[in-house]
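Action item from last week, closing it out:
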Amino acid sequence: MTTLLVLISVIASLIASAILLDDYVLEREHRAVQNKIKNVARMVAKDTRVIDKVEGSPSDAAIQNYANEVMNATGVSFVVVLDNDLTRKSHPDESVIGGTFSNIDDASRSLNGTEHYSRHVGILGEGTRFFTPIWNDEGEQIGIVCVGYVQQTINDELWNARKNLYVGLGVGLLVGIIGALYLARYLKKVLLGLEPKQIVAHMKEKEIIIDSVSEAIIAVSPKRKVLLQNVNFNKLLNKTEVATKANSNGYLNDTLFSLIFDDVFKTEKPIANRVTVINHFEFIVNVQLIYIDKNIYGAVATLYDQSELQHLIRELSGTEQYIDSLRAQNHKFMNQLHTILGLIELEKYEDVHHFVRVLNHNYHREMGFVTDKIKSSAIAGFLLGKTSELDEQGVTLIIDEDSYFPAIKIGDMLHDLLLSMGILIDNAKEAVINSSKKQVILFLKYDEAEEVIMFEVQDTGPGIEKHVLPKIFERGYSTKGENRGYGLDAIQSIVKQYHGLVDVQAKTGRGSTFRIEFPFKWRNKNDESNDR
């Protein structure tokens, strides 16, 4: 096996070198071809036989004979002399002499006295060619010379240049094989006689573990021996306060081994996204067996703090809430603008004035009510946006007149409070969308005496059936289709985070009510600043 690896390395090196050399040879030959046709073209353009005859009759034997001599002497594929009308004065195919050049656009580029290379398909086939102007003694351009090679001729030249390279590659390969045999014996001696099988086993261990999902990683043998663990695993255990008991003399603690690895070794099946509780902390665990030669060598596990995943779900849900609110306000605003624009186009200026006054009155009425009850500008703005959003969909959001929330600073809780209210309001909206009475009622209050933030969302929908009620907070459970059921799970995690309470009252056909309480101690009651 070692010999094979060394041979592969040698062959790979030779092939890489051959590719580089081949590119160099190709580049050199292309430059040689370009220099040759450029030099030949310039030589023909300066020959007096060409200069004296190019302005003459459409066909002149002297130019054709001279062009043939040049082709025979230099080996180029064609020498074409053109006058300023791009009429051929010479060509390998004498039947086209006197006719117009096949690619007028290409040849015309040199009518302004410049030179250029090009690669096009002509009468003789695809080829590389060079154009240069012909000047008379007075310094006037009187024609163009085109010299080039057809692609087949270029390919032949390249093959001749590559032959020596391939011969060298064969010799190098032979030398490499001999060197590989010697190097393999030397490597085995340096590696203390270890067999390739053992080396590959160690490489597979590291590769599988490193390539696994990062975060907390630990790999063990079936006998609890720790093969590898990363820093994040220790940090995770420190969070659970079991780090000092986890690893003893290189072996994983019996309890942790049983929680994480027992099932996978017994069933010989991997574990995916299983929730495991370690000292009251929930983690998402994935375990994969390590095989060497079809035998179980060990297992590697990745652990992810479920609270971080729940936080991510809440962030995503919150972003969706904000987007929906902005979209609803945008639709409402655009509809109002379209109405005003239509009235202006109809020259109903009095109606425009009346419509704007109504809008202004409604806005101040709605905003005045909300801001009178809700002193927190962030929460008030959120509720105004939600009111517009639901109104666009034919649902009325009612703020209970007993609601009151002072302008207190609640820090990071603000985002979670808005997210929870947004989820429950959206769920209530979906519940009433097909009801005859489409109303969602919100009650929000901070009770200073009890030091608790409470809010309640009530809907006039069909309610929740009894057999469904115990499952509504399970992640992924929903009666509304696939890829749903994450909102209430996010709310439950928020409630747990703040040590709050959540209560659900629902009856079939009589709507449902969700009530949430967050303990919050307002330490500076003289602080009347905004939330954030």
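Closing note: The chain is about 50% helix and 20% strand.
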